[in-house]
Design goal:
The chain is 29% helix and 14% strand. It is built from 18 helices and 20 strands. It has an eight-stranded parallel β-sheet. Strand 15 and strand 16 form a beta hairpin. The structure holds 1-O-alpha-D-glucopyranosyl-D-fructose.
Amino acid sequence: PPTPPWWSTAVVYQVYPRSFADSDGDGIGDLRGVLSHLDHLAALGVDVVWLSPIYRSPQDDNGYDISDYRDVDPVFGTLADLDELLATLHARGMRLVMDLVVNHTSDEHPWFVESRSSTTNPKRDWYVWRGGRDGGERPPNNWGAAFSGPAWDRDTTTGQWYLHLFSPKQPDLNWENPEVRAAVHEMVAWWLDRGVDGFRMDVVNFVSKVDGLPDGVVAPGALFGDGAPHFQNGPRLHEFLHELHERVFAGRPQAVLTVGEMPGVTVEQARLLTDPARAEVDMVFQFEHVGLDHGRDKWDPRPLELRELKANLARWQTGLADVGWNSLYWSNHDQPRAVSRFGDDSPAHRVASAMALGTVLHLHRGTPYVYQGEELGMTNAVFASLAEHRDLESLNHHREAVGAGADPDVVLAALAPASRDNARTPVQWTPGTSAGFSTGAPWIGVHPNHVDVNAEAARADPGSVFHHYRRLVELRHTDPVVTDGVFALLLAEHEQVWAFTRTTPTAQLLVVANVSSAPVTLDGAELAELGGLGGEVVLSSGPAGDRPAQLGAWEARVLRRR
Ligand SMILES: O=C(CO[C@H]1O[C@H](CO)[C@@H](O)[C@H](O)[C@H]1O)[C@@H](O)[C@H](O)[C@H](O)CO
């Protein structure tokens, strides 16, 4: 059988540089800050660092708006710092995955500066320009942007409209133009020549838009049409990804990891996108499981049903069992903190629930991604005012909702569980000032619970979330069942227990976790379905001792069956 790709046994750690560690006291994390904490990552045992954008950027969307792809923004450091980080990671046997943001650039990127300068500029067609409706007075279609408002802005220079699925300072590139794709290929090759080991591709399934850019459906009460059906997973996506693979990744000395961030991608599409025979991407970030607690939208929460969550991840497991590969994540810089959203972040259950969530996710089949601070059980922010928020998505939503007549306090309350700022508070290294993140004033508030929740305390406590995650990483590195075992969900209807097996021809692991804050006793039928709770305990977050049918609150066990 073909040798499995290196990343099939890897665990990826996501660094959001702005909030990881600040080395120069300006209150903003930077590359030397990452360098100064590599011991932490090495102790955790992770194999790959995914670095959110550090490129030159006006920072309208914290770096996801790039004005120079081949340089590092001074707020994060220099190219030399990045080269040093890359060399140091490699020397420690770790790899570096960069963020590739090429659905759009910054409006301050020279490409766009040229493109907007005149309708005859050679780079005009590098972006998506249209005349507009009603003699140019109204946008070309009714699409809304991801960060509120219309997806089009009218440019004063030529009076034409340009498309921006995100902020007006993030104009979409026109991937229909082969010059654009060639420029992207060259830039990606430039980074690979510098030795980077892969790319997380930002909203890469948005690059192919449907011809004619038709209007979207306007949901009841919505201000704009939903353009997603016309720009997600578009008609030429597979072609563009395969071309990028063939032109840039194929035949490289280093085996490159590629993961496509793909809101709206389905299992069926992922079977094609991640099929090695099709040479498109290695894995995708799907969004279904991080949308189960959304009502109308992310600001309209609805209760999360465990059965739905289990069933969703199981569907991706079985869907990619014979072809392709899954990525596994609870959170990232766009999602609330895992323990607050899926666990119980009260002092009584924070540690156990963080461990249980880590256990069930890391024992699924696929490549796990750990978001900075998840290994410490960091929790959602506790902002008391709008002034403490920083993320344009949250601030724009508040302005738009209040502008449409909503009560400001009600909207502020809706930000609390869902805002991306929850993931962006500084990493808590110590119980000291600013949690050891910076000697200056942090760009966003440090969580007050850092006095207890911090890396220093976690590293010193063998029973901490940190050491549980370290053991999960170790298990993935040492036990082939974790990478290869066929997944089978058990007790699918149980409202508290998440149980499944991973089976190879010669071995089997049973994973069983109580993902609730109340103890649970399994009845005879349930125990029978599990084949009992016996077996060698490979990993457990609960108290030792033989309790054949009980699981404490948030208790997780990994048992070797054979
Ligand atoms: O799907 C995306 C794309 O995110 C990527 O693309 C965005 C634009 O580059 C960027 O803001 C994000 O940080 C990056 O991860 C998010 O916008 C998501 O829908 C939203 O944040 C959930 O509320």
